[in-house]
Write a structure and sequence with these properties.
By secondary structure, the chain is an alpha/beta fold. Helix content is 33%, strand content 25%. The strands form 5 sheets. A 6-stranded mixed beta sheet has the order 6-7-8-3-9-10, sandwiched between helices. It has a 6-stranded mixed beta sheet with strand order 16-19-20-13-21-22, with helices on both faces. It is a peripheral membrane protein.
Length: 503
């Protein structure tokens, strides 16, 4: 491990504020990075890590605060500006061109030009690519197409891209999420080699054991705010978890006691090849079942399998007392299952359509006769559920894209509640919305459970999971790693289960 010397940071962020549509993503965050340091950046989902990374890489600019690079105040107005300063990033979703070869990807945007012919100097490009790959100890042919590479090999190409522009700062965002243990070890070998050569690395991972293996210091963010920075040798995993989740529950979670009734959904040994396996649980009428986990836990994939969007490869699903075969969303709807997706704009709404069209979309069969649509009946249902959800809009004719995030979420909820489901799956139901709307949605969930509806709530916010769930299941890397009853679980226990690595 490196002992950070008393030197000037290569990168320093001071009192950074960033908000989107009035919602603070970062509030007074400061961060420093030294040459030859691997600095871990951790926090729950929604803590502000991604926003901070996007400010460092020039995707976003802060509303307040300043950035210093090598001691000089600077501003990264775009990604090119950050790139020119020697800042590169490797994201969980790799940014390569699969139909081009390795060398073309490494030198994309700055290919060497022959001064005489003014054309690309292919010989120089292949030579330099080979030199960079060999310096990393990677045995890849620069002329090979990226399409045939493994994920680990693609990450090596991404690192080579960064070195081709002499990157001084390298950001690694969840780089091991899809790697095997052997591939992770190889990545860490290269990270240590880069640290030794003076590259500064920001390392983001939800696998806490990795931080203690690779990082020199760790900075924790919580709710968009800076919690603290500690040397890794001076801190324990329990300390990090406490810093990540040290929040109290309050009136934001108006959970009311409801009668827990019969089992309405039974999932046994559900699996999908390479995604999740051995998923088993029961859901009761009147119950809110919390499903917790971090990025890569595969909670959404389980929900999509139950709803028939991406059917499972094996296992059984039982609704009521009957085994069922759910192969499509239509099958799920007919069984009384509704699913509110995590990304409301991409998967929950048709943004160009008005409120009426969005709310009644799953119910069109009820309003159609041959080629005719009973628009009056359609508007009546839309009005009913828009009022129930207290959607704030100019009228039912307003386009969904013109609404605030909170009101968009209310429209999505109204749309699926109009199908009168008995089982409701909510995927991150309060993500990216204001506190007042969060409280309204929590109150609605509690009311629905009180009326006998069975609810699965997927959430990355531990206070929400603890505040609203009757029972909590925890997933990590496609497996169940914990189960807790309401009142018995703590945030630390859930986080420990969420970062547990699958056997």
């Amino acid at each position: 491990m490196m002992n950070v010397p008393e030197q000037q940071p290569i990168l320093q962020l001071e009192h950074i504020f960033k908000s989107f549509s009035g919602v603070h993503a970062l509030k007074d965050v400061s961060f420093s990075l030294f040459t030859g340091e691997i600095h871990a950046l951790v926090g729950e989902n929604g803590a502000g890590k991604s926003t901070l990374v996007k400010i460092i890489t020039g995707v976003h600019q802060p509303n307040e605060g300043r950035i210093l690079f090598q001691g000089n105040p600077t501003a990264f107005h775009n990604t090119l500006a950050a790139h020119q300063h020697g800042i590169a990033a490797i994201y969980q979703d790799l940014n390569l061109f699969p139909d081009l070869n390795i060398a073309e990807n490494i030198f994309m945007g700055h290919m060497p030009i022959n001064p005489k012919t003014k054309a690309i100097d292919w010989n120089v490009m292949y030579q330099r690519s080979g030199e960079i790959l060999r310096s990393l100890g990677v045995n890849l042919n620069p002329k090979s197409r990226v399409l045939g590479l493994s994920i680990a090999e693609q990450q090596m190409v991404e690192i080579a891209k960064a070195l081709s522009v002499n990157a001084k700062v390298l950001l690694m965002d969840e780089p091991t999420s899809t790697l095997t243990l052997r591939e992770t070890d190889e990545l860490f070998r290269i990270a240590r080699q880069l640290r030794k050569s003076g590259t500064a690395i920001i390392f983001i991972s939800h696998r806490l054991e990795e931080l203690f293996e690779i990082a020199d210091r760790v900075t924790v963010l919580r709710d968009g705010q800076y919690v603290g920075t500690r040397a890794v040798e001076e801190i324990t995993e329990d300390d990090v978890i406490q810093m990540m989740v040290g929040r109290s529950l309050d009136a934001l979670f108006p959970k009311e006691d409801a009668e827990i009734r019969d089992v309405v959904l039974r999932v046994q040994n559900l699996r999908k090849e390479g995604v999740f396996e051995d998923i088993s649980f029961e859901l009761h009428a009147g119950e809110i079942l919390g499903l917790a986990g971090l990025v890569g836990a595969r909670r959404t994939e389980v929900a999509r399998a139950i709803f028939g969007i991406d059917p499972a490869d094996g296992g059984t699903i039982q609704v009521g007392s009957e085994p069922v075969n759910i192969q499509s969303a239509k099958d799920a709807l007919q069984l009384g299952i509704a699913y509110i997706p995590e990304d409301r704009q991409q998967h929950g709404l048709v943004l160009q359509m008005d409120l009426t069209q969005n709310i009644t979309l799953p119910l069109l069969d009820q309003f159609s006769t041959h080629t005719w649509l009973d628009q009056e009946a359609e508007r009546k249902i839309a009005q009913e559920y828009a009022q129930k959800m207290e959607v704030k809009a100019a009228g039912l004719w307003q386009k969904a894209q013109e609404l605030s995030g909170g009101n968009q979420q209310k429209v999505v909820l109204g749309k699926w509640l109009a199908t009168k489901p008995r089982i409701l799956i909510l995927d991150e139901p309060t993500h990216g919305i204001d506190v007042g709307t969060k409280s309204n949605i929590h109150q609605l969930m509690s009311q629905l459970a009180g009326q006998g509806m069975a609810i699965v709530m997927i959430s990355s916010e531990l206070p929400e999971v603890l505040g609203m769930s009757d029972r909590i299941l925890v997933m990590s890397e496609g497996r169940m790693t914990g189960e807790f009853k309401r009142g018995e679980a703590t945030q630390e226990q859930i986080m420990a289960a969420a970062v547990a690595r699958s056997a």
